[in-house]
Amino acid sequence: MRILLHICCAPCSLTVVRTLQDMGHEVTGLYYNPNIHPVGEYLRRRDTLRQFQEQMGIKVLYKDNEYDPQIYFKEIAFREANRCFHCYRIRLERTLFIAKRGRFDAYTTSLLYSKFQKHDVIADLGRDLAGGGQVGFFYHDFREGWKEGIEQSKAMGMYRQDYCGCLYSDFERRKKLLSE
Ligand code: SF4
């Protein structure tokens, strides 16, 4: 199948890309993440992906002209408690749209690799958005390659961020510093 893979970051996509390729699928990546804050972090994750995409053996579509934090903030405004769901939704909806336009057979996301994400929420959402349409959601539990992916990304010297991406997750990791 031709699969459009939403990529949140390079380290999370390593195992996903290799697993899909081993299954015989043709993978194209899509870097679309308006949730990432600040813009310097967005660029750093993007450039890491650019640096390694050839080694990973994939083409990647970059949607820099669509990087707009307002897209994220508008969607999560007044529903911060459920922000991850909407953050997933924005990115999956866009991926599905582009997959349909590009006549891909299926779409999926590197978010299914991370043990820190709400795996079942992402899987259900991906299937719901796809509905019974022509472009299906490709589900696989990529978390099975979690350890291997970490080791590989470290060995390759990839930049590995220490927060999920949004302002809230950045704040969470720094809270300790503020209370000192
Ligand atoms: S914690 Fe991660 S998934 Fe949740 S809203 Fe922030 S960036 Fe999105």
Secondary-structure-derived class: alpha/beta
CATH class: Alpha Beta
Q: Residue ranges: pLDDT <50 for 5 or more in a row?
A: none
Enumerate the strands of the largest sheet in spatial order, edge to edge or round the barrel. 3-2-1-4-5
* CATH H-level superfamily: HUPs
| Relative strand content | 5-15%
Could you list some keywords that capture this structure?
180 residues; alpha/beta; Rossmann fold; 5-stranded parallel beta sheet; globular; binds iron/sulfur cluster
Verbal overview:
- The structure is a single chain.
- With 180 residues, the protein is α/β, with parallel strands linked by helices.
- It has a single domain (2-179), classed as HUPs (Rossmann fold), CATH 3.40.50.620.
- Helices cover 52% and strands 12% of the residues.
- Strands 3-2-1-4-5 form a 5-stranded parallel beta sheet, sandwiched between helices.
- Helix 1 packs parallel to helix 2 (39-56), helix 1 crosses helix 6 and helix 3 (69-76) crosses helix 4.
- The chain is globular.
- The chain binds iron/sulfur cluster.
- The site of iron/sulfur cluster has 9 residues, from helix 4 and helix 7.
